[in-house]
Each structure stands twice: as C-alpha cells, then as structure tokens.
Amino acid sequence: MFNKKTIRDIDVKGKRVLVRVDFNVPLKDGKVTDDTRIRAALPTLKALLDAGAALILCSHLGRPKGAPDAAYSMAPVADILANRLSVALTFVPDLAGAKAREAAAALKPKQVLVLENTRFHPGEDKNDPELSKQLAALADIYVNDAFGSAHRAHASTVGVAAHLPAVAGLLMEKEILYLGEAIANPKRPFVAILGGAKISDKIGVIKRLLQKADAILIGGGMANTFFKAQGLPIGDSLFEPDAVETAKTLLGNKKLHLPLDVVVASAFDNDAEFRALATGPVQQGWRILDVGPETVKNYGAIVATAGTVVWNGPMGVFEMPTFATGTLGLAKAVAESPAITIVGGGDSAAAIQQSGLADKITHISTGGGASLEMLEGLELPGVAALLDKE
Ligand code: AMP
C-alpha cells in the first residue's frame, strides 16, 4: 500500500512542476556510463508532459562539496535526457538563483528545464530553509520521483515539499510498492542476500530481516567480520573491528548463512595469485576477495526454492574480473529463480546488468541506501514529506 498522493491525483495542466529526480548516474571522463536512472524517470516525466506541465528538473550528482565542480555538472545528463524526450529542453548552470528563476519563468507547457547539481549549493544537504524556499519559488507543484535520495532529508527532497503541493512520481510509487510488499507480505520462503564491504551500515537491516525473512545469505567483505567473530584468523582480509561484538550476537541464529568457501588472493589486485579454500583459517599475507564455488552452489540452491529474494551488495570485489565470479554466479541464480526477485544497490544492479539477465529480475531498484532503509523498516523522509492520500 502506498498512502501518498501521486501525479495521478493532481492536475498539472499549464503548471510549472519542480521534479526532484535521481539522476545520480555513474560518470567516467565527463561521460555518463549507465543511464538506467535517467530511463527510470521517463514514465513520470512523459506523463507530466503529456498532461500539459512545464518541467523543472533537479538532482544531485556525485559528491561535490557544496560548491560548483565542473566534473559533476548536470550538463551531460541533460544532453542524454534531451535525446530521450522529444520536447524542447534547456539546461541552466544554476540551481535557485536569478538565472534559474529567469529560465523557469520563461518556460512554456511541455518544455523542460534542467537545473544544475543540487549539491553545488551548500544548503542542499543541510536542508537549508532559504534554499528550500528559493526552489519552491520556481514552481507551482513539487513532485518527488527520486527514490534513491528519499532517505536523505535535504532541501530538494524534504525542505521544498513544505512550500508546495507535494506528490510522488511513478518511480517513487513503484519502488515503494515492490519493496514494501516484499517485506510486509513476502511469498515464502523469503530469502535475503546481503553483501558489500561493510557490516556496520547493515546491522539494522540484518536484525530486522532475522525477524521477517526465512534465510539471510551473507557474502562480500561483511562475511569477514562474521568469520572474525567466530574466532577464525582471516589473514589480511578487510573487516570491521568495531562490529565484531555485534556480529557475535547474531552468529547463533540459524537463519544466518555464511559462505562455505572463499577465494583468497595474495594481493588486492586483479592479477594476484588466488585460490578457493573451504571456510577456515586464512594465512597472513592472504585476503578474502570473493565467495567460492561451493557457496555459489549452496546459496544458488536456497535461492532456487525461494518465494521472494531480496539482494543488496556484491559477494566479492566484483570490480576486478578475477573476483567477480561469486557475484556473477549469484546474479545468475537470482535471475533463474522463479521467485519474486528484487535487487537493490548500485553494485548488485550493475552485476545483474553485466550478467545480461536484468530482464529476468522482477524489480531492480534504483536506490541502494533507500532500499536498505526500507528493508530496515524506517520511514523515508522524502516520502514522509509528501501529501497523504485522502
Ligand atoms: P557496499 O558499499 O558496502 O555495498 O560495498 C561494496 C564494495 O564492497 C564493492 O566495492 C566491493 O569491491 C567491496 N567488497 C566486496 N567484497 C569484498 C571483500 N571480500 N573484500 C574487500 N572488499 C569487498
């Protein structure tokens, strides 16, 4: 159930609509390397344009430090969007100042204006009331379609919503329906797969999933902290000393599965010497960089009989092809499972894309942190700020 108003509940004809999108796309040498998030916003943008709105779009991109930084300009993103929408589109290198105001005022229905990176302004991540007011002054209506940023209480995601009629976009609605339903009403067995580097930012999720899910499969660097908690020497593997005690308290739970085997390497390097070992002591000078083939088989079998699978975080250092085997193997298992499958987080979504099996996944979430917070049962501030359905 989604209890917020959406763009279907308002009349936008002839109105200026400020849309917070999540165009935080990966960039390399000033070029967008993956436009998934841009494409994900198109249904909302097209629906608003078809309904006769003029659109003013804003998003953050990367992590500039509250000041303009050419490397993170929205200009290349605007170019891609212009190719995807067959309407007049302009980009203005300003967020809420005079240039943005002028461009917004000149906008006609069915035209699009793209504003500069919200994080070029120091007020964005402070949820600055002044910036929120300035953003709101550009438009008549506010739409939040940036699910990937909904866990952040920033000026463009929360502050602005207090000053305008504020509703959800279609992507926001879809994300919350899928993730919300998976947690509230899962088809069982409900299996969660958690990987990635750190355990500390996923402790809350693990604790909640231990109540809600039937099995939690752990991989990636976070498994190392569990090995450490079991008293195993882990050589030079990455782990989190501060999380070992918490990991100890979770170990006894039968729902929690750890890798049966691991791939260890002589260096943190794609060309390092490497081998698979049954889970056990790892020698000094070696570090765990992936799960092993037995684990992929074991986790694959659990996933194959699941009713719902939620996956967040890679099984190893998948950026290096040598250590991507576990992650790609699991991606295949998830894609082939007849279960409802939901993949969240940039890395796991990228692994699914790399494996060419994206169309076999029920829902690939555009949000990493936001999807984790939903799995943890937290209210997303960007959603809370929107109007309730009557
Ligand atoms: P996170 O941001 O916590 O989801 O972590 C993603 C990162 O975890 C990726 O960049 C992976 O390279 C990294 N990672 C996964 N497994 C390991 C491992 N065994 N050792 C070091 N880093 C890892």
Radius of gyration: 22 Å
Number of strand elements: 17
* Assigned CATH architecture of the largest domain: 3-Layer(aba) Sandwich
**Overall structural domain count:** 2
Average residue pLDDT: 96
Kindly report how far apart the N and C termini lie: 14 Å
Instruction: Give the overall silhouette.
Output: elongated
Strand content: 15-25%
Ligand inventory reads: adenosine monophosphate
Global structural class:
alpha/beta
Instruction: List low-confidence stretches.
Output: none
CATH-defined topology of the largest domain? Rossmann fold
| Fraction of residues in H or I helices | 25-40%
Per CATH, the class of the largest domain reads Alpha Beta
The H-and-E topology, N to C, reads as EEEHEHEHEHEEHEHEHHEEEEHEHEHEHH
Find the CATH superfamily of the largest domain.
Answer: Phosphoglycerate kinase, N-terminal domain
How is the largest sheet built, in terms of strand order?
A: 5-6-4-1-7-8
Annotation field: number of helices: 13
What's the story with the biggest beta sheet? 6 strands, parallel
